[in-house]
Design goal:
Largest interface: A-C, 35 and 36 residues
CATH class of the largest domain in chain C: Alpha Beta
Oligomer: heterotrimer
Shape of chain A: globular
CATH topology of chain A: Rossmann fold
Strand content of chain A: 15-25%
Number of helices of chain C: 10
Number of strands of chain A: 12
CATH superfamily of chain A: P-loop containing nucleotide triphosphate hydrolases
Low-confidence stretches of chain C: none
Largest sheet of chain A: 8 strands, mixed
Largest sheet of chain C: 8 strands, mixed
CATH class of chain A: Alpha Beta
CATH superfamily of the largest domain in chain C: P-loop containing nucleotide triphosphate hydrolases
Mean pLDDT of chain A: 87
Helix content of chain C: 25-40%
Structural class of chain C: alpha/beta
Order of helices and strands of chain C: EEEHEEHEHHHHEHEHEEHHEE
CATH architecture of the largest domain in chain C: 3-Layer(aba) Sandwich
Strand content of chain C: 15-25%
Strand order of the largest sheet of chain C: 6-7-8-3-9-10-12-11
């Protein structure tokens, strides 16, 4: 894993428009509009938004599962959308993803070992036998799993928490620099969530860059260094986590914060700002140290 | 949100509700599911009855010709005899052995059915998988192709083509039927592929550097194996019926005995009016029983494969 | 009204045996109370919610009784139970989108539902309009198809419909799980408002989200592996949990403001036991940091302080 470093994943004015209908003749949906931010190894960036905010689409575009309609995504200086064949495979060796539903991420007819095998075949073909087993064991150890507990089993025999950790360790096998974690704990029980999050924190300390996509502000606040808040596909506020949460400026951010149910305080009266109104010429303005708000 | 919804749907069934992420041993894996499927299969009345009927006729088709010395086109037997201990299904007006015709005819039906179903399955799978997985322009083009072939009045085309090309063998007949009956299979497979392609394990395979062909063959197809099986059975039934229709109209191979040809000859020899029921009833019953049995099997299999349709 | 549940046991029949999803729960809900039922997956809370209104598919009532206002509910008898559903015991389904028949106009669907219950749609119409207005919907909603409504509107229609007959008991199963925070807050507050206005007498809110329960529930009941582990007024439970499971669970929830660099939270190691063959004694002992010799004997769910119950040998301390 790279220590800190200058390798950046940069999104610049990224837009995604979905079209329905045969040959694209139907209605359009602006899923993501003009999103610009970057992620570096050694930091966790939270992408926070409600459903329909486009946060999952951003993750998918970074992972090349969906092409952007406009704008550019560059990694280490190279445009990600031009990659194909060899280039794309190399990209996946440095940028990987983990998704929301652990039980959907595994092909149910195969044992879980297969996800490791696929990686070995594509990226580490020369690593075999005891060397391979050792690498695998270390990757599992990094996420707090014992090889004997999880290998040789089918997905349904393991818990959601174990499955998600397995997916993280699969990504680690390849020495990746950026991990896109899309709502990876929302389907896990409360008591296992925090352990998986702590793993991400540890990996960040060792140099991994993480894009943590979530709707849960408390989790974003717990884990991330920087936070990006999306509403209807546009960035409305972003900056260092501590600053944004201590002093939320955009009405949408404040509305979100006031709606989060807490264990120590009751909901107070709803704020009166209308968070749905979009300014006529929206632009991100700097309001503090690295703290931007759309106005 | 939709993934959570579909998950909640799963939670409604007791198996997942109990396990969630907790007691994982109750949910069944692929081997367990096969065992469970077999358990329900043997108890499903429709499946058992349908399969028995089809297998009985298949047995007759395989063994029947060995039980008789007569061949279907051989003349020289007594004219128009009703069934007796010597001629089990009687003889035709021009003096052929009906039983021989019947069992050889059954063979033809099974051969054409299987071959045509195989051809249609392969085409249907190719078109359905590729269109469903790739989406976009490729899917639009393949869908249009599917819709065009679907809309063409199959029987009319087959009649015209058969009339011009004089179908000489079972193989040609099977090819013709296969080439025109694949569209609905393609559509069904495409729809299933769509829903499977959006599953995360397919995305994960792509992220592991797997190409389109590998993803389709190794990730998608194995997860719809029961569906593909059902599709094949339906295609089989449909092919048998279409072949019988063509043969009845006199457009099938004339040198190979088939159940439809039997009925064709029977009608043109006024068997109905002459009351020679033993000539046209067996082939009619044979076709109805085989096709009907296959469809009933299909309904039963659907219940077996889909836990939510079970009545336990 | 009071709901009294006494030693209720509901198992699922599977090919491998009986899954003891709900294994002897006893509690009561009083008039006007909003009781939160919390726990993680597999704890039995959904089974409990379903048993109170409709035993489906493989569920089997193995023992115990449920009484509503002194009347025994015939849970196992599908037809007899039908008389109680909607009028005395009602349920708000989790996904409003799936609950509404897509090819029926809202008004038509409501009238058909009322007809099937022997209630006159015409007589109920004025009250229906009043309640719709209360949640911010106009009468024109009755002429629309579900597809024309937004998710929030559908949720509100479903809630009005579920409570139209002023049921004594309302069951809300995972009502807020899949919703955005803003909608979640609106729906949760609606539950409280319905209770305050007398549309429902008592409510059981089933969810895994303790924070939402703290906001709206009067008491919280925590379940684990088919059994009850703790019951207390909401504020007391979150401030001073007595059962080790509750304590560990609350300790694993990050509040807005907690940062990993300042304080690293811990989860609960291990997994809940299999319900096919549950262990004897306390079901939490394999994962409990306080487990000791006596835990092989199952602790009873008893009152450890006024208004507080727990099933733990060490909780009375």
């Amino acid at each position: 894993m790279l220590e800190g470093g200058s390798v950046t994943l940069r999104l610049e004015n990224v837009t995604k428009v979905f079209r329905t209908g045969t040959f694209g003749g139907g209605a359009t949906v602006n899923a993501v509009t003009g999103v610009t931010f970057d992620i570096r190894p050694g930091e966790i960036v939270s992408l926070i938004g409600e459903s329909g905010s486009g946060k999952t689409t951003v993750g998918r575009m970074i992972l090349r599962l969906t092409p952007p309609t406009a704008g550019s995504i560059t990694f280490d200086g190279r445009d990600v959308s031009t990659l194909g064949g060899r280039g794309l495979r190399d990209y996946y060796g440095r940028v990987q993803g983990v998704f929301q539903d652990p039980f959907s991420s595994y092909n149910p007819v195969f044992k879980v070992d297969r996800v490791f095998e696929m990686i070995r075949r594509a990226y580490l073909p020369t690593v075999t036998g005891s060397e391979w087993r050792e690498r695998r064991r270390r990757a599992l150890e990094d996420v707090g799993l014992e090889a004997a507990d999880v290998l040789g089993k089918y997905p349904h025999q393991l818990s959601g928490g174990q499955l998600q950790r397995l997916l993280i360790s699969r990504a680690l096998l390849m020495d990746i620099e950026i991990l896109v974690a899309d709502e990876i704990i929302s389907m896990l029980d409360a008591s296992t969530r925090i352990d998986v999050l702590n793993i991400l924190g540890d990996l960040r300390d060792r140099g991994l860059g993480v894009l943590f996509v979530t709707h849960d502000l408390a989790l974003g606040n717990y884990l991330s260094d920087r936070v990006v808040i999306l509403q209807h596909g546009r960035i409305v506020e972003m900056g260092p986590t501590a600053k944004v949460f201590a002093n939320p400026v955009h009405p949408y951010t404040r509305m979100l914060l006031s709606c989060v149910p807490q264990l120590t305080a009751k909901w107070d009266a709803t704020t009166n700002d209308d968070p749905r109104a979009v300014p006529t010429n929206p632009v991100l303005q700097l309001v503090g140290d690295d703290h931007y708000v759309e106005r | 949100m939709s993934s959570a919804e579909s998950r909640a749907d799963l939670v409604a069934t007791p198996e997942v509700a109990l396990t969630g992420q907790g007691a994982g041993d109750v949910e069944l894996g692929p081997r367990g599911k096969r065992f469970e499927a077999l358990h329900f299969a043997l108890r499903n009345t429709k499946l058992v009855i349908g399969a028995s009927v089809v297998l009985a006729f298949l047995a007759l088709a395989l063994v029947g010709p060995l039980l008789t010395d007569a061949t279907p086109f051989e003349f020289g037997y007594p004219l128009g005899q009703p069934p007796s201990s010597e001629y089990w299904l009687g003889t035709t007006a021009p003096g052929q052995d009906v039983f021989a015709q019947f069992v050889y005819g059954l063979r033809s039906s099974f051969v054409v059915g299987a071959l045509a179903a195989a051809i249609a399955s392969v085409i249907g799978m190719a078109v359905g998988f590729v269109g469903g997985y790739r989406g976009g322009v490729i899917d639009d083009v393949l869908s249009m192709l599917t819709n065009i072939v679907l809309v063409i009045p199959t029987l009319a085309v087959l009649i015209i083509v058969s009339a011009y090309l004089s179908v000489g063998s079972l193989r040609s007949e099977a090819i013709l039927i296969g080439l025109t009956s694949w569209p609905w299979a393609a559509r069904a497979i495409r729809a299933q592929t769509f829903s499977l392609a959006s599953r995360d394990f397919v995305s994960l395979a792509r992220l592991s550097g797997q190409g389109t062909a590998r993803v389709i063959l190794r990730e998608i197809a194995p997860n719809m194996s029961s569906y593909l099986f059902l599709t094949f059975i339906l295609l089989f039934g449909g092919a048998v019926l279409t072949a019988a229709t063509l043969d009845f109209l006199g457009l099938g191979p004339s040198q190979v005995m088939s159940l439809g040809l039997m009925m064709n000859t029977a009608v043109s020899n006024a068997a109905l009016q002459l009351g020679m029921w033993w000539w046209f009833v067996p082939p009619g019953v044979g076709i109805t029983a085989i096709v009907g049995g296959l469809y009933v099997m299909n309904v039963g299999l659907d219940e077996v494969f889909n836990p939510r349709l079970r009545r336990t | 009204m009071t709901l009294a549940v006494d030693d209720l046991r509901v198992y699922y029949r599977t090919l491998k045996g009986d899954v003891k999803a709900l294994d002897g729960v006893t509690f009561s809900v009083s008039d006007g109370e909003i009781m939160g039922l919390a726990g993680e997956s597999g704890c039995g809370k959904t089974t409990l919610g379903k048993s109170l209104i409709r035993l489906d598919g493989r569920m089997q009532l193995m023992g115990g009784t449920v009484s509503l206002d002194g009347v025994r509910l015939p849970l196992a008898d599908e037809r007899a139970m039908s008389a109680f559903r909607f009028k005395d015991v009602s349920i708000v389904p989790q996904y409003a989108m799936s609950a509404l028949n897509p090819i029926r106009k809202i008004g038509r669907m409501i009238s058909e539902l009322l007809d099937s219950r022997g209630v006159s749609y015409r007589d109920t119409r004025p009250e229906l309009s009043r309640r719709l207005a209360l949640v911010g919907l106009g009468d024109e909603i009755l002429d629309r198809f579900p597809i024309e409504l937004s998710g929030g509107q559908k949720q509100r229609v479903v809630m009005v419909l579920s409570t139209l007959m002023d049921p004594s008991l309302l069951i809300a199963d995972e009502l807020t799980s899949a919703l955005d925070v803003s909608t979640q807050k609106a729906v949760a507050e609606m539950l409280v408002e319905f209770r305050d206005r007398g549309f429902v007498k008592s409510t059981i809110v089933i969810t895994h989200d303790l924070a939402v329960l703290y906001q709206i529930a009067d008491t919280i009941l925590v379940m684990y592996a088919g059994k009850l582990v703790e019951k207390a007024p909401a504020g007391e439970l979150t401030r001073d949990p007595r059962h080790p499971y509750t304590r560990l669970l609350i300790g694993s929830l990050p509040e807005v403001g907690a940062r990993i660099s300042e304080k690293r939270l811990q989860g609960i190691a291990g997994r809940p036991p299999s319900l096919l063959d549950p262990p004897s004694g306390c079901r939490f002992r394999a994962r409990c940091p306080l487990a000791f010799a006596k835990c092989v004997e199952e602790p009873p769910f008893v009152e450890i302080a006024p208004g507080r119950h727990a099933a733990c040998w060490k909780a009375a301390a």
